[in-house]
């Protein structure tokens, strides 16, 4: 069988100019802070790939199928040869891996080709479909019966229509030779040792994913020889490293054996897992940057979203990380359910305090809370999230104008107010980091491949950050 796999987990989209300017400023100060506290890190590689789709491709290849792997971006912009092959009916099956904002583009592409007489079967899967298969089929009938919300071999068997041998799941997690470009050209920010999350914050999909364990090193030793001799910051995107404390120690021990001086590591962690013992293990394994989702600095917001952390706990964990010599990165989110206008003020105040004391080394400018479509929207109404019925899924991302208003018992916060608060928190965070570092943003040079949001800009102009 001839199968085309289309990586639609990232996309280019024009974003608001004010936000774009602020993003540029943020990425300037971020690079400055990283260079100062972590040393110079190479960030010249801008291609990204979906490890999930590459896994599916790897299994299909091992099953003996004839596969091609391409990114949606290439398909839309430049790759005429592949388009010709598609039009000529060369592929039996065309499979997209999508996130919410790219589902409409996949549907439009598939519909267009079908109207032009292409007989191939179209499928869609990936992290979005795992959450919203039913809603996807309702909105995009082209994918009726073709939304595959399965993982690994089950997904492969469904698409191929026969049971593949068990042996395909053994061996390296992914086969990098399938990628359309050499591995050195990719930004390797996508190693993981375990997927899924043992916590269950209401707004996040990771807690509902099945747990999937990769090797204890996430395959770092296989990737390392292919990277070229550039100093990189390799990110482990486990929701919290290793999944739990015991496995975290196993992961650190395994990484200690394979780490080298060329690269440093970063990881996502839950504050509960941070103590002297885990910090020591992380340092010995080569981790320098620990990333923590603060999300909101309002206890009510944290509680009603099931975040399960208090601000005083958080502060003591951040202090410990600083004492142990880590670079700490914090994520923030604007507009989560139960947010009040006071939440915005508190967020600014708290972020400024954490930044000033360097309890957070790099405070990421906020992302906008996204009520990702799920097969059950009712939970959102219960949380006071009023979704704009006209909103297109392509706007369900963390950088676009909010697709919802928030209602609580005593106030309504409109999408415009959330947007303004978002811009304002951006400004305050950037200025607090500049002030701490004693620099003027105008005098810092733009990183070579500065990151903007939503891949806006010409190819190679910059890539998305979460
Ligand atoms: C690394 C990552 C990124 C990286 C790289 C993306 C990439 N190309 O892989 C970057 C930083 C670029 C990124 C960006 C974004 N991301 Co992201 N990302 C992740 C993360 C942390 C890991 C993805 C991953 O590799 N998983 C591991 C693989 C093995 O799992 P998988 O991809 O789900 O694949 C399995 C199955 O889904 C299935 N499968 C996959 N593809 C297909 C295809 C078919 C046809 C079939 C049948 C099956 C199938 O089989 C795979 C193997 O079992 C996930 C969260 C997570 N922990 O998974 C979020 C996640 C996928 N991202 C998400 C989002 C929303 C985004 C952004 C839109 C954020 C934004 N700006 O708003 C952007 C999109 C980029 C853009 N604007 O263009 C959401 C998606 C939610 C949704 N409902 O759609 C997630 C789930 C995070 C979250 N909890 O909110 N992301
Ligand atoms: S702890 Fe983080 S990854 Fe886990 S469910 Fe909560 S927000 Fe998601």
Please summarize the sheet with the most strands. Answer: 6 strands, parallel
Percent in helix: 25-40%
SS-based class = alpha/beta
Helix tally equals: 15
Briefly note the CATH topology name of the largest domain: TIM Barrel
**Tally of DSSP β-strands:** 16
| Uncertain stretches | 451-466
The CATH class of the largest domain: Alpha Beta
Query: Mean of residue pLDDT?
Result: 89
Which molecules are bound in this entry?
Answer: cobalamin, iron/sulfur cluster
The CATH architecture classification of the largest domain is Alpha-Beta Barrel
Number of domains: 2
How far apart, in Å, are the first and last alpha carbons?
36 Å
The CATH superfamily of the largest domain is identified as: Aldolase class I
Whole-angstrom Rg: 22 Å
Give structural notes.
There is one protein chain. Helices cover 37% and strands 15% of the residues. The chain contains 15 helices and 16 strands. It has helices at 17-38, 51-62, 72-77, 80-87, 103-115, 127-139, 152-160, 220-223, 245-258, 276-284, 299-304, 311-323, 341-356, 378-382, 415-437; strands at 2-8, 66-71, 93-98, 121-125, 147-148, 194-195, 212-213, 232-236, 263-268, 287-295, 327-334, 362-363, 367-368, 385-387, 404-407, 412-413. Mean pLDDT is 89; it is low at 451-466. By secondary structure, the chain is an alpha/beta fold. It has two domains: 16-47 and 186-363 and 417-443, Aldolase class I (TIM Barrel), CATH 3.20.20.70; 50-169, 3-Layer(aba) Sandwich (Rossmann fold). Strands 8, 9, 10, 11, 12 and 13 form a six-stranded parallel sheet that branches. Strands 2-1-3-4-5 form a five-stranded parallel sheet, with helices on both faces. The protein is globular and about 60 Å long. Bound molecules: cobalamin (B12) and iron/sulfur cluster. Cobalamin is lined by residues 9-11, 48-53, 55-56, 95, 97, 99-101, 123, 125-128, 130-131, 148, 151-152, 155, 159, 190, 195, 204-206, 237, 239, 372, 397-399, 454-455, 464, 466. Cobalamin binds at residues 9-11, 48-53, 55-56, 95, 97, 99-101, 123, 125-128, 130-131, 148, 151-152, 155, 159, 190, 195, 204-206, 237, 239, 372, 397-399, 454-455, 464, 466.
């Amino acid at each position: 069988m001839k199968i085309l796999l289309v990586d639609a987990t990232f996309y280019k989209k024009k974003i608001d100019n004010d936000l774009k300017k602020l993003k540029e400023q943020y990425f300037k100060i971020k690079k400055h802070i990283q260079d100062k506290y972590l040393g110079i890190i190479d960030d010249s590689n801008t291609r990204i790939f979906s490890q999930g789709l590459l896994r599916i491709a790897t299994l299909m290849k091992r099953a003996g199928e004839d596969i091609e792997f391409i990114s949606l971006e290439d398909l839309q912009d430049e790759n005429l040869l592949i388009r010709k092959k598609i039009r000529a009916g060369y592929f039996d099956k065309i499979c997209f891996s999508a996130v919410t904002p790219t589902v409409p583009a996949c549907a439009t592409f598939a519909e267009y080709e079908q109207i032009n007489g292409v007989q191939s079967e179209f499928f869609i899967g990936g992290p979005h479909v795992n959450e919203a298969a039913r809603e996807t089929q309702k909105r995009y009938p082209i994918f009726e019966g073709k939304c595959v919300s399965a993982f690994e071999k089950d997904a492969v068997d469904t698409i191929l229509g026969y049971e593949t041998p068990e042996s395909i799941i053994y061996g390296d997690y992914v086969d990098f030779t399938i990628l359309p470009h050499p591995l050195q050209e990719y930004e390797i920010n996508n190693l993981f040792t375990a997927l899924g999350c043992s916590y269950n914050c209401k707004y996040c999909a990771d807690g509902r994913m099945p747990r999937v364990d990769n090797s204890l090193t996430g395959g770092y030793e296989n990737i390392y020889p292919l990277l070229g001799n550039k100093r990189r910051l390799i990110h482990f995107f486990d929701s919290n490293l290793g999944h739990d404390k015991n496995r975290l120690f196993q992961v650190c021990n395994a990484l200690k054996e394979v780490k080298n001086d060329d690269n440093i590591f970063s990881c996502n962690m839950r504050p509960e897992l941070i103590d002297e013992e885990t910090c020591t293990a992380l340092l010995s394994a080569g981790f320098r940057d620990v990333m923590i989702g603060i999300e909101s600095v309002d206890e009510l917001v944290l509680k009603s979203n099931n975040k399960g952390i208090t601000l005083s706990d958080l502060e003591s964990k951040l202090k410990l990380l600083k004492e142990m010599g880590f670079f700490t990165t914090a994520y923030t989110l604007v507009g989560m359910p139960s947010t009040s206008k006071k939440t915005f003020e508190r967020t600014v105040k708290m972020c400024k305090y954490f930044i000033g004391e360097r309890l957070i080394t790099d405070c990421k400018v906020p992302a906008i809370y996204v009520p990702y479509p799920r097969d059950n929207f009712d939970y959102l109404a219960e949380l006071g999230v009023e979704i704009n019925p006209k909103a297109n899924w392509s706007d369900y991302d963390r950088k676009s104008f909010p697709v919802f208003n928030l209602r609580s018992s005593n106030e309504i916060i409109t999408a415009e107010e959330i947007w303004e608060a978002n811009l304002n928190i951006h400004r305050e965070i950037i200025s607090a980091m500049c002030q701490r570092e004693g620099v003027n943003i105008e005098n810092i040079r733009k990183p070579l491949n500065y990151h903007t949001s939503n891949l806006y800009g010409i190819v190679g102009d910059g890539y998305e950050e979460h």
